[in-house]
Amino acid sequence: MKTHEISIRIRYGETDQMGVVYHGNYAQFLEMGRVEWLRNIGISYRSMEEEGIMLPVVSLKLDYKKPARYDDVIRVVTSLRSEPGVKIEFDYEILGKNDEVLTLGNTVLVFVDKRTGKPMRCPGHILEKIRE
To answer: What is the largest CA-CA distance in the chain?
Structure first.
């Protein structure tokens, strides 16, 4: 399935007293990767929300291998696991220097109708962009 990659330079405020990236920041890194993955295929969160589509995270998994530190440049590689239905699932690799795997991640999100708050199937126009 489609893959997209972004680079992020670690800011001082993202580290803890041990000088490594605080574990809670990784959820934001995954979100940044996911948002840019969608933008890369021509879909923005803003446009989905304007259409009445919400996409909340229902599952977040992280497997920390090695730490990232202040001023490191990490690469977040985001991959769609399978064609979405009601749920859309992404896998992530956070890589450091020399493609060293720092963290592996996975998120599952659900398409939700903003008006009703109920789950819905992935809209056809989004499926078309994914299949292109």
So the answer is: 47
Structure confidence at residue 68 (pLDDT): 97
Give this prediction's pTM: 0.94
Pick the catalytic residue: 16, 71, 99, 113? 16
- Alpha-carbon distance values, 12 to 51, 73, 102, 115 (Å): 37, 12, 18, 40
What does the alpha-carbon distance between residue 45 and residue 62 come to, in Å, rounded to a whole number? 23
Q: How many helices (H) and strands (E) does the chain have?
A: 3, 7
99 as an active site residue: the answer is no
E strands present in 10-97: 53-54, 57-64, 73-80, 87-95
Q: CATH code at 116?
A: 3.10.129.10
Residue 132 scores a pLDDT above 90? no
- Domain span including residue 77: 3-131
Number of structural domains, the chain? 1
Count of Cβ atoms closer than 10 Å to residue 59 Cβ: 11
